[in-house]
Task: inverse folding
């Protein structure tokens, strides 16, 4: 399942300190992966979130459209190097 980052609500509040926003992103990707694991019980789960890094964009640190990518891998996608590389290759568009 792939979701365009524009279809997701922002995971960070610009009023929160950067560290709190970063923790929120980590918690969200972990919750997504763990929920998929619990409900579907697959051999592996991979969640990759790429989203605009708005706090950097708003502060002018980087140009508009600065992105941040985070991931959470479980099961064989995490543990088997070949499976992990295949998954990440698909995510990268390769």
Result:
């Amino acid at each position: 399942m792939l979701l365009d980052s524009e279809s997701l609500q922002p995971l960070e509040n610009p009023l929160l300190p950067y560290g709190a926003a970063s923790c929120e992103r980590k918690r969200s990707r972990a919750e997504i992966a763990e929920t998929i694991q619990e409900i579907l019980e697959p051999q592996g789960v991979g969640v990759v979130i790429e989203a605009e890094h708005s706090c950097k964009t708003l502060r002018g640190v980087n140009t508009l459209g600065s992105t941040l990518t985070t991931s959470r891998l479980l099961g064989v996608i995490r543990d088997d190097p070949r499976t992990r590389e295949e998954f990440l290759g698909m995510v990268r568009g390769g």
Summary: Helices lie at 18-40, 54-59, 76-79, 81-91. Strands lie at 44-52, 67-75. The domain at 15-91 is CATH 3.30.1130.10 (GTP Cyclohydrolase I, domain 2).
